[in-house]
Each structure stands twice: as structure tokens, then as C-alpha cells.
Amino acid sequence: MSGAAGFVADLEGRVALVTGASAGLGLASARALAARGARVALNSRGGARLEEARRLLAADGADVVAVAADLSEADAAAHLVGEVEGELGAVEVLVANSGGPPVKRAVDLDDADWAAAIDGTFLFVPRLCRAVLPSMLERGWGRVIAINSVSARQPIPGLALSNALRPAVLGYLKTLSREIAAHGVTVNAVLPGHTLTERQQELARAVAKETGQTPDEILAERAAGIPAQRIGSPAELAAAVCFLASPAASYVTGQFLAVDGGLLQGLL
Ligand SMILES: NC(=O)c1ccc[n+]([C@@H]2O[C@H](COP(=O)([O-])OP(=O)(O)OC[C@H]3O[C@@H](n4cnc5c(N)ncnc54)[C@H](OP(=O)(O)O)[C@@H]3O)[C@@H](O)[C@H]2O)c1
What we know:
CATH superfamily of the largest domain: NAD(P)-binding Rossmann-like Domain
CATH architecture of the largest domain: 3-Layer(aba) Sandwich
Bound molecules: NADP nicotinamide-adenine-dinucleotide phosphate
Number of domains: 2
């Protein structure tokens, strides 16, 4: 069977919730999952961009709903999942994603920075998992995929909050994956390298301000430092998300897959 754009419809009828999905990597992941037959719930803080994303997927022919929720708020994940279950049924594939933390040096961080980042970069993942896991465990099938970052393995200068909290997410996911592996639910993460989205452009603008270069020059320098010699596309990251969501990845759990054009140098 084949779905939109000639993709294999290996997720036909599966309910997927993709958070942080009005733009960038979340939107690309949602589109790719829908192309494989998933019924998709898109989330972001809301507004015109989220509605535009919903329309885009609907125009692709997807069965799609959009639910606004700010994942940095403590009870947002539970409410979001409740609403999605009401609209589409139990969530079978969770893609846990949100906006990245601000650019800050470690020496400049105060308690308010940490508190905001712990909610927005770390806690939203366990909160989402807590909300979707009961039905996945009951059915004996589920996929949890977090969009994390290469910063978990190789700190990025100026991104102290990301460098500290992305590894915490992976520590949580690894522990969770082992606790529930026997129940048919896999837990993995993708680690994007430099991928062309609004976030990547925002980071380039922040560096450009400091160095006096243009954002395009920063992006070109970045590309030159990647073994593949280019910035990645959101669709390339989404392809890895789809693999981890697919039946083919049924024996892959507790893994963190870098999609980075060879940027990470370490063996592990
Ligand atoms: N792009 C890269 O090169 C790269 C590399 C490594 C890691 N990452 C990480 O991967 C994630 C996605 O990156 P991206 O480039 O796609 O980012 P992006 O272009 O900034 O998109 C972020 C998405 O998250 C949503 N969002 C932001 N805050 C939210 C909140 N509190 N609750 C719910 N939704 C929220 C945004 O929608 P609304 O504004 O509509 O809420 C948007 O849909 C980020 O955490 C980023 O740091 C990206």
C-alpha cells in the first residue's frame, strides 16, 4: 500500500501527536507521518501559524486536527492529550518537540532562566509521556520519539541551557525505554544537527549580532564545518522520525539517532 507522495503507508490509521508542530522540525515530522497514513494531531501555542499548518496537512489529504497548548505550563500536556484522545482516539505515536531555549552563556544564567528552561526544555517530555503511556501500555503498542539535539552529545557554544538539559531528557528517555520495553512501546530520540528552520535562522542572527557578519555568512560558515558540507533539511530529520515510528523499528528502543550530516565526532 502506498500513501501520499508515493510513501509506504506503514502507519495507516495510527494516531500521532506531534507537539511544536506549527513550523520547522515538528511540522515536517507531522507531514511525513501523515504521508505514511497516520492521523495527526498538531500542537503549538496556537495562532495563525498553527491553523496554517493544519490547512497545509489537510490540503495534502491528511486526517488532521490542531490543538493549542503551551507546553511550558505544568498541566498543558495532560489537557492536550485528553483533547486529542477526544478528537482522534488514543495517541499511538508521540513526537515530543517544542521550541528551543534562549541563547545564553553559562556564566549569565540565573534561577529564573533555569526554571523556565526546566519546564520548556526538560519537563514537557516526561509530562507528555505520562499522559500518553497508560493507553500505549494497555494496547501493547506505542512509539515515543523526542526531538532533542546534538548539543546533548557535544555542547554548542552559547547554548548553555540546551547543553545542560538535553542530556537530562536523554537520561529520562533511556530509563523509561528499559522500564517499558517488554510492553511493545519503544522510546527513542532524534538529535538534529544544523537544520534549516526558523530556529536555525534565529540562532544565526544572534551570532551575527556579536560578530558583525550577516546571518547568511554565519550559515555558510556553519555548513563548511559539517562533513556533509551543508545544512540539513527538516524533511531529512522527519525521515528519521518516521523510521522510528514505523513497524520496521519495532526492536529499536533507547536509541538516540543523530541526523547531522556527520557533525558529531565521537563514537558514542
Ligand atoms: N533547527 C535546528 O537546527 C535544530 C538543531 C538542534 C535542535 N533543535 C531543536 O529542535 C526543536 C525544534 O526545532 P525547530 O528548528 O523546528 O524550531 P522552531 O522553528 O523554532 O519551531 C518550534 C516549534 O515549537 C512550537 N513551540 C514553541 N514553544 C512552544 C510551547 N511552549 N508549547 C508548544 N509549542 C511550542 C512553535 O510554535 P508556536 O510558536 O506556534 O508555539 C514551533 O512550531 C527545538 O527544540 C530546537 O532547539 C533544532
